[in-house]
Batch of 2 targets.
Target 1
Amino acid sequence: KVELKKEEIKKGDITIKKENGDINIENGTIIYKVTITSNYGTSSEVRLEDVMSKLEFDGTITAKKNDVETTINVTPTKDGFTACLPKMKAGDTYELIYKAKLPEGYQGTAIKAHNSIEAKSTNSDNKEITSKSEIDTVFDDGTIKKSGVKNEDGTVTWTITINEQEKDISGWTLKDILNGNTELNGTKATID
């Protein structure tokens, strides 16, 4: 944890915050909202780096500076994007809204995606100032869930819940793969 003395903060600061917006499980898309603020301003441009895990940036960002629409230059990368904001004045706020999507073939599956964004600039002493925000998003429509309970004899009773939302899953195949040295003890299944 880094603590800044009040006089150091007055020389420049930056704060970034990322929030989840609308999530579309079936299409595998999410809208992110990022807010970048500076109470005391920055002495140089603000460099942004967004890194996505299990997601792809869709290529467009809607940007506002102090509630007025603006344009920023964005460079897509293999796992997110980079962007640059002009030097911020005291009290400036940027709001960025953009969409990310799961890679092709993963829509409708249960996946935990991670996304982080970092802002870097300098203060009036030309020292680097940074702020980072991270967020996890779970794409899970609840179509299938699995849980296990360890029994007194050391065996595990598994429960698999399928299709609580009563979606059309015709043509689906249920396959449960055991890991490591696990053995299946009998082939008994109870269907409720």
Note: The first helix runs from residue 6 to 10.
Target 2
Amino acid sequence: VFGSWRTVAQVWPVVPLLVGLFWGLGQTASLSFGQGAGRQVGAVNLLPATDTADFAATLRNLGAQKGTGAREVKIDVVWPARVADPMLPTLRWQLRDYPNARFSGSLPADPAPLVITAVSGVAGSDPAGDDASGVARLGATYRGREFALLQRWTPANLGDFNAHLRWVLFREAKNPPEKLNVLLWVEQSESE
């Protein structure tokens, strides 16, 4: 079929047209799902997770119970500052309306009624028992709940050829994103 360079030169413009056709079909199909080209995120990105709204509502409700107003509660954020950690800016943004939020790398001597920590900083999660953040000092008077605030998806986990083709054409993946979680600790009174 391709016996000469002249034939190759005549067929070559068809290749970008076919690529554009397949991309256009993929975009047309994604519009049906509300994922048009202008609203799609990059392949490797951090996005708010599904628990972000629940986290904000829980903070507001617990703040009304533990403080003088909905946003007047004292909150300690025990989070070591790491350069590449995306959670600390997210927590600062989520707590922007809470004037009594304290950010520190370890638990203060007088913990607040609400304490936010990393999941890995929980007492008992480290087999060596090394708890540099001091979360183990919270004791039995605090109860924790885990919230997923960020999610990250990478195309490395796609798997087979069909999954890659589905990603290229439709920007759809069947593997779930990785969740980045925090723990919200609440001080329990004797009556609770």
Note: The first helix runs from residue 5 to 11.
